[in-house]
């Protein structure tokens, strides 16, 4: 194969002519800028890139990308994108969704896209609130959340989006932050390189209805002690002085956080995103507490499994191999198949 | 012994047994033999939704009716001349449909005290006079089959299961059917188990020979070939024809066909059939639910495929929001609704026409779509092509309203010449269409068709965004402008209303009818047969049948107003009649029935005769 031609695109090439209409201060702006800044790196022509979204604040995203795009209906973007990806393997298909869109009304399509391992890059903007409908609790809101629809506090337990994706055996699962452009772009890069479904949760601030939801992960005073930055092949230590580490205690099922000073180095878990058993990444996804302490960021899991659309296209190619008839001839033979009789 | 041979012009046979007795297969084979002989045919399977209801019970009865004649026929027949009853339940469930004098062939081996008790017979109806008036032929089908297979290396169970082939052999003898295709079929079906081929062929021959030798059957019948148009025919069900129509639409448009489907009775067979045609570029996806199925189809259409989704009424309800999105996006999409009796799960294996309102109106907002309905099993092929033609040409969702009756019924189909099928090629947008030569306007319409350009991803320079939010005329940008919304709503309505569809044709051979019978969809056969019956008795009546329900033919109002009375028989509570009254201010009379079964020609004839008397 010849070396692909450098398209020399810039972030500006990915900005559409539409006026961006999120609330001033919304985390979505930072994500949009990070994505537009990152896209040129892929060296994929704009016409071969498609963004498909559902409904919600985040789902306005495609209007602002100067690629092909579809703003569809609530929760259904993964299904629509699956049809496109399966029938057009030449395209780079991205899904932009939110916590309500992907995990509430569209939960079914999300888990099935992930289990099928369709070639889709799914970006879930999680702000733990319904923004576009003006402030009801979402399926990722914490228990007891007081909102317009839950004046006495919400009664239902939230989803952990990464645990859910891993339960569906997603092959690529990562988390990043709206405000950390460098990290966000590094995760997008890894997602884009992945063959199959890539699921990226982006913690995103809604400054109108749930302001400061992820503040401890952003505040200079707390962030280093709260965030676990996962690096493939590196021991998992964190904290302003590396004072915390992650271990797999014998006899336990999951992972736990310990003080590095009191832990023998060989007991510290070395992060490996390629572990076949999703239980490891699942254990990582269970580390954060309600106060957001011990929140891992980065690529939890990146494993290889045949992608659904690839398999489907292979089946079509296998069926067509060696066919030397024109479609009309084949159709004629097909119509006349079975028991026929002729009347003169 | 020499048997008397009697000529008949038509026969209706119903094979009935337990759902495990293989009655559908038996009927299918008899139909195939009959087709080879050149009779005109119409068939009607009738089976329970349960795969294996408790053996020997009334809910477990499965039947297959075949009507064949030496002239062209329109229905599977109102009443069987012959009933093959494999057990007491099959006799009890079907006896009421038989006219006096009909032949009844019963499998006496199954008329045990236990089986009789299961269906509430105190004593055997074979022993009392309750079947007086019928020509009853008691045959020990099971034991004779087992006896005939004594020398075969098959289990007792497999030997007993071959009794349907014994029955088929007997009936094939009675009606002088050519059986070579059945022998070939058995070889194919049991290719992996030669001992079963031999056993089933032996059972078939034993049944044939039994007919020839027993004194109980003294007459053998012949039905001469029907006069049909020259050409090559095959017998086909509506679901098979509809599937082939979609494959043909792919070939004639040059586009890949993408089917998104979720299994549902009675539409699943279309998914099964289309999944076999990857060679012709057909991609099928069994989705996680009905909504994903239509979503994936729409996604594929967006990418330049012919997106199709197949379902039944409950599925259409779930797909409704996505169909509205397709209306807003103005992309091609074919939605196949094989109607069944509702509401809710209703009677999944029984027929009904009660989704017309849903097809026409069942969406939020003003969301018009085109609606096409096939009138017979073989017409499903052409109706599918027509639905695809409208979808591709006018960039719109089209609902194809089939029903269980045409989907599972079968009739001979004159194979079309592929080159004569409509040319469905489309042109994708390839360059900017704005006046400045660089701008692309995704909602700038073709003045003739009002269709917008189909610009598929991958086309350089035409990158654009579409969505469910209201779009500004031409640019497709998000718009909340009141005047624009009013314009777009009216334009979307006009887009459908102005699709040219053929004028409706009226069948009124003598031209003196004062009553018009208007139908749509699968009622074509029974209405046609009833009208013929009336005309043969000197009672003039006109018949017109709607294939396009949205938009309706331009001449429909004029046709309706030229008759004193318009009668609309429907297997619903008057959905088309309601539309006709509202649109054309015609005082149409509805004739409605929702029994899960097609109309009989006789009941329509009786009803129409009453109407004629009062004109």
Overview of the structural elements:
The complex is a heterodimer of chains A (344) and B (615). By secondary structure, chain A is of the alpha/beta class. Chain A starts with 26 loop residues before the first helix and ends with a strand. The radius of gyration of chain A is 23 Å and the shape is globular. Helix content of chain A is 28%, strand content 17%. In chain A, the strands form two sheets. An eight-stranded mixed beta sheet of chain A has the order 2-1-3-4-6-5-11-7, sandwiched between helices. Chain A has a three-stranded antiparallel beta sheet with strand order 8-9-10. Chain B is α/β, with parallel strands linked by helices and 615 residues long. Chain B has four domains: 220 residues, Pyruvate-ferredoxin Oxidoreductase, domain 3 (3-Layer(aba) Sandwich), CATH 3.40.920; 187 residues, 3-Layer(aba) Sandwich (Rossmann fold), CATH 3.40.50.970; 74 residues, no CATH class; 108 residues, Rossmann fold (3-Layer(aba) Sandwich). Helices cover 36% and strands 20% of the residues of chain B. In chain B, the strands form five sheets. In chain B, strands 11-10-12-13-15-14-21 form a seven-stranded mixed beta sheet, with helices on both faces. A six-stranded mixed beta sheet of chain B has the order 3-4-2-5-6-7, sandwiched between helices. Chain B has a five-stranded mixed beta sheet with strand order 18-20-19-22-23, sandwiched between helices. In chain B, 54% of the residues are buried. The mean pLDDT of chain B is 96.
Helix-strand blueprint:
The complex is a heterodimer of chains A (344) and B (615).
Chain A: H1 27-42, E1 49-53, E2 68-71, H2 77-87, E3 92-98, H3 99-105, H4 107-116, E4 121-126, H5 161-167, E5 172-177, H6 181-193, E6 198-203, H7 223-226, E7 227-229, E8 237-238, E9 244-247, E10 256-259, H8 278-285, E11 295-302, H9 308-320, H10 327-335, E12 340-343
Parallel strand pairs in A: 1-2, 1-3, 3-4, 4-6, 5-6, 7-11
Antiparallel strand pairs in A: 5-11, 8-9, 9-10
Helix pairs in contact in A: 1-6, 2-9, 3-4, 5-8
Chain B: E1 4-8, E2 10-18, H1 23-37, E3 40-46, E4 61-69, E5 82-85, H2 88-94, E6 103-107, H3 113-118, E7 135-139, H4 141-148, H5 156-161, H6 163-174, H7 180-189, H8 194-213, E8 219-223, E9 231-237, H9 238-253, E10 257-261, H10 268-274, E11 282-286, H11 290-302, E12 306-311, H12 313-329, E13 333-339, H13 356-361, E14 370-372, H14 379-394, E15 397-403, H15 404-408, E16 410-414, E17 465-467, H16 482-497, E18 506-507, E19 515-520, H17 524-536, E20 542-546, E21 548-550, H18 556-561, E22 565-570, H19 575-584, E23 589-592, H20 601-613
Parallel strand pairs in B: 1-8, 2-5, 5-6, 6-7, 10-11, 10-12, 12-13, 13-15, 14-15, 19-20, 19-22, 22-23
Antiparallel strand pairs in B: 2-4, 3-4, 9-16, 14-21, 18-20
Domain Pyruvate flavodoxin/ferredoxin oxidoreductase pyrimidine binding (chain B): 255-474
Keywords (chain B): Oxidoreductase
Pfam families (chain B): POR, POR_N
């Amino acid at each position: 194969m010849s070396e692909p031609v450098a398209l020399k695109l810039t972030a500006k090439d990915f900005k559409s002519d539409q006026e961006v209409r999120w609330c001033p201060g919304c985390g979505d702006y930072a994500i949009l800028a990070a994505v537009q800044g990152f896209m040129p790196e892929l060296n994929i022509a704009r016409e071969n890139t498609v963004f498909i979204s559902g409904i919600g604040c985040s789902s306005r995203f495609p209007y602002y990308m100067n690629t092909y795009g579809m703003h569809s209906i609530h929760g259904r973007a993964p299904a629509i994108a699956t049809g496109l990806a399966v029938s057009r393997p030449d395209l780079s298909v991205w899904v932009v969704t939110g916590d309500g869109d992907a995990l509430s009304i569209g939960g079914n399509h999300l888990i099935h896209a992930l289990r099928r391992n369709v070639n889709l890059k799914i970006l879930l903007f999680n702000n733990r609130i319904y923004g576009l409908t003006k402030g009801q609790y979402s399926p990722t809101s914490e228990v007891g959340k007081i909102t317009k629809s839950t004046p006495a506090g919400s009664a239902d337990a939230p989803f952990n989006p990464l645990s859910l994706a891993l339960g569906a055996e997603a092959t690529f699962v990562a988390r990043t932050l709206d405000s950390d452009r460098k990290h966000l772009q590094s995760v997008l890069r890894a997602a884009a390189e992945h063959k199959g479904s890539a699921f990226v949760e982006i913690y995103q601030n809604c400054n109108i209805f749930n302001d400061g939801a992820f503040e401890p992960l952003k505040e200079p005073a707390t962030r280093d002690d709260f965030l676990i930055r996962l690096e493939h092949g590196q021991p998992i230590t964190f904290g302003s002085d590396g004072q915390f580490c992650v271990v797999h205690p014998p006899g336990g099922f999951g992972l736990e956080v310990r003080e590095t000073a009191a832990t023998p180095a060989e007991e510290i878990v070395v992060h490996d995103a390629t572990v076949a058993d999703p239980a490891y990444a699942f254990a990582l996804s269970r580390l954060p507490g309600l106060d957001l302490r011990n929140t891992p960021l980065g690529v939890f899991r990146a494993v290889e499994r045949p992608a659904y659309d690839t398999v489907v296209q292979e089946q079509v190619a296998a069926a067509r191999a060696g066919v030397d008839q024109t479609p009309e001839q084949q159709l004629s033979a097909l119509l006349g198949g079975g028991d026929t009789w002729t009347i003169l | 012994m020499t048997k008397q041979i009697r000529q008949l012009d038509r026969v209706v046979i119903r094979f009935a047994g337990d759902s495990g007795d293989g009655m559908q297969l038996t009927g299918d084979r008899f139909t195939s033999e009959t087709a080879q002989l050149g009779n005109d045919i119409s068939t009607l399977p009738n089976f329970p939704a349960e795969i294996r209801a408790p053996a020997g019970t009334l809910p477990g009865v499965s039947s297959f009716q075949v009507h064949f004649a030496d002239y062209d026929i329109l229905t599977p027949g109102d009443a069987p001349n012959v009933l093959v009853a494999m057990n007491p339940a099959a006799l009890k469930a079907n006896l009421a449909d038989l006219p006096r004098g009909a032949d009844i062939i019963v499998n006496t081996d199954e008329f045990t005290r236990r089986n009789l008790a299961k269906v509430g017979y105190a004593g055997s109806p074979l022993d009392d006079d309750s079947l007086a008036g019928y020509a009853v032929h008691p045959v020990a089908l099971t034991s004779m089959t087992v006896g005939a297979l004594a020398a075969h290396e098959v289990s007792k169970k497999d030997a007993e299961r071959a009794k349907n082939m014994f029955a088929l052999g007997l009936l094939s003898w009675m009606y002088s059917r050519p059986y070579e295709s059945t022998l070939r079929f058995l070889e194919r079906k049991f290719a992996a188990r030669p001992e079963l081929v031999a056993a089933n062929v032996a059972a078939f021959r034993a049944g044939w020979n039994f007919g020839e030798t027993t004194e109980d059957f003294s007459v053998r019948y012949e039905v001469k070939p029907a006069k049909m148009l020259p050409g090559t025919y095959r017998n086909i069900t509506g679901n098979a024809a509809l599937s082939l129509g979609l494959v043909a639409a792919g070939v004639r448009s040059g586009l890949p066909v993408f089917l998104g489907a979720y299994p549902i009775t009675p539409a699943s067979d279309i998914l099964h059939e289309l999944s076999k045609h990857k060679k012709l570029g057909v991609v099928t996806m069994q989705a996680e639910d009905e909504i994903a199925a239509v979503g994936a189809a729409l996604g594929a259409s967006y990418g330049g495929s012919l997106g199709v989704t197949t379902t039944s009424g409950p599925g259409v309800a779930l797909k409704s929001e996505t169909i509205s999105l397709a209306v807003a996006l103005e992309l091609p999409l074919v939605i196949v609704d094989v109607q069944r009796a509702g509401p809710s799960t209703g009677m999944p294996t029984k027929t009904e026409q009660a989704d017309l309102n849903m097809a026409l109106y069942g969406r939020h907002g003003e969301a018009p779509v085109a609606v096409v309905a096939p009138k017979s099993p073989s017409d499903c092929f052409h109706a599918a092509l027509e639905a695809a033609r409208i979808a591709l040409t006018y960039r719109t969702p089209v609902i194809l309203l089939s029903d269980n009756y045409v989907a599972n019924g079968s009739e001979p189909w004159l194979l079309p010449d592929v080159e004569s099928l409509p040319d469905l090629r489309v042109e994708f947008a390839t360059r900017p269409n704005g006046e400045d030569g660089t701008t692309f306007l995704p909602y700038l319409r073709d003045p003739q068709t009002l269709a917008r350009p189909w610009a598929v991803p991958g086309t350089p320079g035409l990158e654009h965004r579409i969505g469910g939010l209201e779009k500004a005329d031409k640019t497709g940008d998000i718009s909340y402008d009141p005047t624009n919304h009013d314009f777009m709503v009216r334009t979307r309505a006009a887009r459908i209303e102005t699709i040219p569809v053929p004028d409706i044709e009226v069948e009124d051979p003598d031209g003196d009818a004062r009553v018009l019978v208007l139908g749509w969809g699968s009622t074509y056969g029974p209405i046609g047969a009833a009208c013929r019956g009336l005309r043969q008795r000197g009672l003039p009546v006109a018949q017109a049948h709607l294939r396009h329900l949205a938009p309706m033919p331009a001449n429909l109002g004029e046709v309706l107003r030229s008759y004193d009375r318009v009668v609309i028989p429907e297997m619903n509570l008057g959905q088309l009649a309601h539309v006709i009254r509202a649109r054309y201010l015609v005082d149409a009379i509805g004739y409605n029935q929702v029994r899960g079964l097609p109309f009989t020609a006789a009941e329509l004839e009786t009803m129409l005769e009453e109407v004629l008397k009062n004109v």
